[in-house]
Design goal:
mainly alpha; globular
Length: 627
């Protein structure tokens, strides 16, 4: 790339030199050199520095423990070529090994005297050590799925090895379609190997379901029913129609015939493994209860504290997070009130009026396939408009390589309304904005643009491309509160660029979206710390935010399966705004909107406890530049 992916805290001279550059990519030779190195060290003169060596070990651990990562970021070549035919070992023994390796490396990381490292290396070491510490804490509970070091799913931790939104049956087919590139027969053969590994993953998870169940860690009955329904639907579709199969056959037309081999693996390996997974869950179903929160599980209160700290990367406790949600909701609704008054919605609570607005047919998409096509066209025009505004928000630009795609119908019942993420480091794989189209009623014309800004540009896809400017070790790490806080801030950027100036109802949708995230703070802590029922959580959310009841039902089930994850959004967003206020106060007339945004994204994904340090360094640089 045009400047080092390794640099985090630039010297003043280096920062000045890179200001204003537009990154458009790098040559294939540069990519090969950057992404296949096993040392991951930019400073050759420091090859003997223990800290740099350990950062390389951390990278290797994350790639080899989670081989999917190598394909997702585009480094499944060279030294990591063998990973292209592998998947994560999801068996109990496999997870124990990852936990042990993580703990052993953490001990080494903590032994490093960061005072002996350069400022950028010390910060890298702090970031890596913090996530390894949190991962070790999670592994020590001995159940569920710790995903903090797993690039593809690091945003969530789950007390359950399998749920409606967790597990190989949900994650691997879409991963293979989006991230496993196929250009040669070796690539196609590696895909077949991964299909066999997928069947082994299913069996490994089934084994963990049984052992976790013996400890009392069982899906709530409402999630059990949903998960079993999805598994049965996935199994019962004709394998020839599976996206897992068609993705391979569609991309190998010029390489040979792979249909027979893929169908053989599907029928002989995958379907039997799906059956065993269904049987494992069915055996536990009679023991499932309606308790929605993780408090009902062994050591549940402590486990929730861990997931909350992991999801927010702060030390906030459940009561603090709960109150923050109430306070932020009140503030946001005070901003919504005058807009509602101006468009004629004058009576009732803000939530009730937003419910009424949501029922207005003027803002609905058509039902069925015509509405699905309408939604995709709407997203395309929204992306085109916001791309053109990016130079007003950033000095350093990225390509924003994006593909918009429907979530696979076989899993969309348990999937969120949308999700997104960046493509590969080498630029060959696009970022994705996956949209749930199980019903066109999930989306409307006053909030879909805001959702697009969140998931795509300048949200997850956009920010992820800046993360790739970091070292490979740092690029493999994502922190939920940072990435989701950024995505909310991306929505704010769009508003500040004037996208709603002629559409006040769209600004209402944006503010309701922020309020939606404030409600998450209340509901997530309500479910897992205050022992709310699923129905109490649903009713509170719909009543207080006026949200779509269909969307809220799926959201509440998500919070039950991923404790703490949903709290990262608003906690991260509020932290970014606090730091912007601080930067404005300290820099005065020297504060520049575009330079602040650059500092946020070029600093890479970090815990909230580290982000202030990144911004403090930006402030210090700007003060020095102004002398």
């Amino acid at each position: 790339m045009k400047f080092s992916r390794r640099t985090l805290l630039q010297s003043s001279a280096a920062a000045a030199a890179t200001t204003g550059l537009m990154t458009t990519g790098c040559s294939e030779a540069d990519r090969a050199r950057d992404t296949t190195s096993t040392s991951d060290i930019v400073h050759p003169e420091r090859l003997d520095t223990y800290g740099y060596i350990l950062l390389g070990e951390a990278k290797d651990l994350m790639l080899r423990a989670y081989p999917e990562t190598a394909s997702s970021v585009g480094v499944d070549t060279g030294d990591y070529a063998a990973l292209k035919s592998q998947l994560t070992d999801r068996s109990s023994a496999g997870q124990v090994k990852i936990a042990g390796d993580t703990k052993a490396l953490l001990a080494k990381l903590k032994s490093v005297d960061t005072d002996q490292l350069s400022p950028e290396a010390a910060l890298d070491m702090d970031v890596v050590t913090s996530v390894f510490e949190r991962a070790v804490e999670g592994f020590d509970y001995g159940f569920g799925d710790v995903a903090l070091l797993n690039y593809n799913w690091s945003y969530r931790n789950a007390p359950y090895a399998i749920a409606q939104n967790t597990g190989a049956f949900v994650e691997i087919p879409s991963f293979l379609d989006a991230s496993h590139s196929i250009k040669t027969t070796d690539d196609a053969d590696a895909y077949l190997s991964r299909m066999q590994a997928y069947a082994a993953q299913l069996d490994g998870e089934s084994e963990r379901v049984k052992s976790d169940g013996a400890r009392g860690v069982i899906l709530p009955n409402f999630l059990m029913g949903k998960t079993l329904s999805q598994l049965r639907a996935a199994r019962d579709r004709s394998p020839a129609d599976w996206g897992l199969i068609t993705s391979l056959t569609d991309r190998t037309a010029e390489l040979g015939t792979y249909d027979a081999a893929a169908l053989s693996i599907a029928t002989q390996d995958i379907i039997p493994a799906l059956n065993r997974q269904i049987e494992a869950l069915e055996a536990l179903a009679p023991k499932a209860t309606s308790d929605a929160g993780v408090w009902a599980k062994p050591n549940g209160d402590a486990y929730y504290d861990w997931t909350l700290r992991s999801g927010t990367t702060t030390t906030m406790n459940p009561d603090e997070v709960h109150q923050m949600g109430l306070d932020e909701l009140a503030d946001l609704q005070s901003q919504m009130e005058p807009i509602l008054q101006s468009i004629g919605y004058t009576q009732g609570s803000v939530g009730a009026r937003m419910t009424a607005l949501g029922a207005d047919k003027r803002y609905h998409f058509k039902p069925g396939d015509p509405g699905r096509a309408e939604i995709m066209d709407f997203i395309e025009s929204t992306v085109t408009e916001i791309r053109g505004l990016m130079p007003q928000a950033f000095e350093t630009l990225v390509p924003g390589f994006l593909k918009v795609e429907r979530i696979a119908p076989e899993v969309e019942a348990g999937a969120p309304g949308a999700y997104g993420g960046a493509g590969s480091i080498d630029g060959t794989q696009p970022g994705h904005f996956w949209i749930n189209l199980r019903s066109t009623d999930l989306h409307n014309k006053f909030n879909l643009a805001d959702l697009t800004y969140h998931e795509a540009i300048p949200g997850h896809v956009w920010q992820g491309e800046y993360a790739f400017k970091q070292s490979l070790t740092r690029s493999l790490l994502a922190f939920n509160a940072y990435s989701e806080g950024w995505a909310l801030y991306a929505q704010q950027i769009a508003d500040e660029l004037g996208v709603y100036d002629d559409f006040p109802v769209g600004r209402l949708g944006y503010l309701q979206s922020l309020a939606f995230r404030a409600c998450r703070l209340v509901v997530d802590t309500g479910l897992h710390a205050k022992r709310w029922t699923r129905e109490e959580a649903n009713q509170w959310f719909v009543t207080n935010n006026g949200s779509n009841p269909e969307e809220v039902r799926g959201e509440i089930d998500r919070y039950c399966a991923w404790p703490g994850q949903a709290c990262g959004y608003k906690v991260g967003h509020s932290a970014i705004n606090r730091l912007r206020i601080k930067a404005k106060a300290e820099l005065g007339d020297r504060f520049d909107f575009r330079q602040f945004n650059d500092a946020l994204v070029l600093g890479g994904s970090v815990p909230m406890t580290v982000l202030e340090r990144v911004i403090d360094n930006y402030i210090a640089r700007e003060k020095l530049n102004g002398l």
